[in-house]
Write a structure and sequence with these properties.
The protein folds into 2 domains: 4-170 and 346-367, Rossmann fold; 186-343, Rossmann fold. Helices cover 47% and strands 17% of the residues. It has 16 helices and 13 strands. The strands form 3 sheets. The chain has a 6-stranded parallel β-sheet with strand order 10-9-8-11-12-13, with helices on both faces. A 4-stranded parallel β-sheet has the order 4-5-6-7, with helices on both faces.
Length: 368
Amino acid sequence: MVDYRVSREATSLVEAGHEVCVIEWDRKKDYKPQDTVESVSLVRIHNKGLLKALPHDLLRNPLWWRAVYKMGVALYKKGFTFDVVHCHNLDTLVAGVMLKKKFGIRLVYDAHEIFGYMIAREMPPVIVRITLFMEKRLLPYVDQIITVNEPLKDYFRSISTKPITIIMNSKDLVSTDYIPPKNEVFTVCYIGVIHSSRMFPELVDVIGNIEKIKFVIAGKKENLYEEVKKRCESYQNIKFLGPIPYSDVIPKTLASDAVICMISPKDPNNKLGLANKQFEAMVCGRPIICTKGTYAGKLIEDLDCGLVVDYTKESLKEAIITLRDNPILCRDFGKRALQAALTQYNWGKDKEKLINLYKTLLIDNTKT
């Protein structure tokens, strides 16, 4: 499974005794049409025919919805008589509504973000408005909304009366004890989306010109990947890893002294979201540098486990130097980050919420 949140939820439900089949859109045909991973059945839809010929996912979406619906019907008729359709993000919800109407099953909408705000980075305002309207029109068919934090819960509460559960993108605990870093050179890391809303490519020049610092970057081959990769070659203190498997994310984070999470407060999706890097930093006991004017920054301030600064190159540089020159501050931030993970922000707690939610859904289903 390409999406880590989908993978974690699916495997957790299997561990709880449920049968799970995930239908994925494998646009580039990177994987087999069918597979089984950690006891989760996978069915992948590849781009072919008109689905391949159309130039943009916006145009392909109606064909994707129809393909998912037909695949769901085929699975049901072959004996996989599912009780719940769990739709991740708005680009799957139309298909979920179609399957709900066909079979009368429960429908879960798992909103990783506000989809309209996310596509606003690339799409014209009219498309954003249509997307937000479409989501609002589909929500009455949903039985349960899942989302990732309080601001998004507030948003969905403002447009829907459906029950909402927060299941964060938290991570498995690494250790119950603080593990200090062992680097000779102070090392900061960034593992995630390489996008202009994360201060790329300028961030590379900022850190590349700070003395006694090592910077490790990893990210997928999309957005500003090639430009950032090329720029990193100009600096001896930057190591550009490119794409890495998720199994390497926690070890790379644990091997760093601090984590960078500079997200633009002008981006409406980033402003309300929490980054995977925050949860990774917490379970590793590492301080994080985050941005003022964002919910992510507010969480770091509330937990007192990092530095929250303006979204400027100067502020980022000052924060890195502050952490580099204050090992005791770094240690204290790191210990508080780990304590937050131990007490609240870990997958064990979110997994329990997911499993209990499904118990309630399936009990309710027997009553209808």
